[in-house]
Fold this protein.
Amino acid sequence: MLAFVVAPVLALVLAVIAPVPLAVIAIAVFGVAHLGLESRYVIGRFSTAVSWRVFAWLLVPLTAIAVVRLAQLGPKGTRIEASIALALAVGAWAWCTRRRWAAALVGVIAIGGLAVPALRNPAWYVVVVAHLHNLTPVAFLWEWSRDRGTRAGRTLFRVAQLGWAVAIPALVLGGVFDRSSWGLGTWAADRSATQVAAVYTPAGWGGEWPLRFLIVFCFGQLMHYVIWCGFLPAVAGPEHRRAGRVRGFGEFLRPRVFVPGLLALATLIGVLQLTSGPEGRRIYASLASYHAYVEYPLLMLLLATLATGPIALSRSTTTPTITPTTTARNRS
């Protein structure tokens, strides 16, 4: 719990003081590491609710998105990416709510409604996805805490998540931390501070808004990294170890292969981001699509369990099962 008292304060201070260099350096240092650690956690955590074959099939649409990002097709590419991502969400929701037709229909209609603004305004889609992606750990932490500690402890833990994910960004966007400059340092590799902020700001929003949105993004990004690179590896050892036993993926997720491979890739891609400008960012964005969009079907699964009960984690890592009872609990 102490982590979610100290980390948000430190992250906010850094984001307010030096948002421009932070937006560049943080992703170069922690970006690839969090891709690998998040993927390892979710595979281990959900391997008993979702067959390893499902994860394997997910590589097909995820690879399609990665290729689209590499191709840099502009707004057309963003529309293709959004279409694949929303199709993933629709398919996952339909699978999770099968035989519950009313729930399936409501979910499909809701996701379909999101497709309209996403496809009409691809620039907005990019900004919204960038900010919401930083907040996705809240859902995974909410599920992780479901069977841990006392009810009061869980409530306090979840309130802390809403504090950093909702309250602090609201204060920043409300102008509480407004300043007259970009802060300490405006180094942004090959880009200007304005160009960096524009990536995370809705088109047409001028004045104080670009700096506010940049601070919100940098703060959320740091908290995102704290959770995936620090908190969950520390408290969710069983899930990470379970990933090494999953058929089809386990061999690559065991420490002797995973750790040196991740360090090498993180170093290579991090250096490319800092030295190769657009090319480095393009390669990273392509890799990032795998972990960013595998969250869509998993979030649908978590949402479905609000009605069916928590995910049942059995001893087997090959049998997919979601129990409808509210008594099943993950004690790992």
Residues 39 and 172 are 30 Å apart (CA to CA). Residues 3-308 form one domain. The chain has one domain: 3-308.
